[in-house]
Write a structure and sequence with these properties.
The protein is mainly alpha-helical. The protein folds into two domains: 96 residues, no CATH class; 161 residues, no CATH class. It contains nine helices and no strands. The chain starts with a helix and ends in a 30-residue tail after the last helix.
Length: 257
């Protein structure tokens, strides 16, 4: 009886959060734009481009469509960033040729991807740290290093995907840059900005952890914890937040101070 009363207010609070409706609103706007483009392409007989737009529409639908079906609930902030990133990189970048029209478009997206996947790296460490079957407690330096390496690894896998698509389908995802038609220079600059974005978010997270202050990364992780509370009931911590829970004073634990 008491447990039912305790959980009911939380469900009402999460469901009534206006931010939870923002992904659907953003998705409706972007889907309308892409649908109009799809109609234009199909009328012009550009079937391949039309197929690409339809695929992008499906990808932008995924965070919202799958969010309610996955065992882990995705916070609205992550859904919005995922939808916006797919739209900016694939629809605006590839279909609308923003990569050629706006010189900084590719640079900004790769730097942003480094930031985003660095945040995901912090989140993964927190999930592992809260798992009752994995008894670890990590220091800030190691947490930041993991987030940094994770973001770079994802960026490298994306470059492998671009190369595979170019070879298999004859597209040109690896763009000529600085007089190099092979795409190698484009790949290296992409990785450089992936690394820069990953470094910035990792250094930011590390700085806040050692100062014992709360950042937006911790706020997002706290929200992830709140809406997925059933996965984190086993390990209670007397700390001010999940990022702080990753720290421990003992020298024998993983990582340095």
């Amino acid at each position: 009886m008491e447990r039912g009363n305790a959980t009911k207010p939380r469900e009402t609070k999460i469901g009534g959060d206006p931010a939870s409706r923002l992904p659907c609103i953003l998705l409706a706007i972007l889907q309308t734009i892409m649908l109009a483009e799809l109609v234009v392409l199909l009328r012009a007989g550009q079937w391949l481009n039309g197929l690409q737009v339809a695929t992008i529409m499906g990808l932008t639908l995924a965070p919202v469509a799958l969010g309610s079906r996955l065992p882990i609930r995705i916070p609205p902030e992550f859904q919005i960033l995922s939808i916006a990133f797919v739209f900016a990189s694939l629809f605006l970048g590839e279909i609308q040729s923003y990569y050629e029209l706006v010189w900084w478009w590719d640079i900004s997206l790769h730097a942003t991807s480094g930031l985003l996947f660095g945040i995901v790296g912090f989140l993964l460490v927190y999930v592992l740290n809260e798992n009752e079957r994995i008894d670890i407690s990590l220091r800030p330096r190691f947490v930041a290093l993991f987030a940094f390496v994770f973001a770079i690894a994802v960026g490298a896998l994306w470059e492998v995907f671009e190369y595979a698509m170019d070879q298999a389908l004859g597209v040109q995802m690896q763009k000529p840059r600085l007089g190099d038609p092979s795409g190698l220079t484009d790949t290296m600059w992409d990785l450089i900005f992936d690394t820069l974005g990953a470094f910035l978010i990792s250094a930011f997270g590390w700085w806040y952890m050692i100062r014992d202050e709360r950042s937006f990364i911790e706020n997002w992780i706290r929200k992830f914890n709140r809406i997925n509370r059933k996965f984190f009931r086993s390990r209670r911590r007397a700390t001010s937040g999940p990022i702080h829970a990753l720290k421990a004073p003992a020298k024998s634990e993983v990582g340095g101070s």
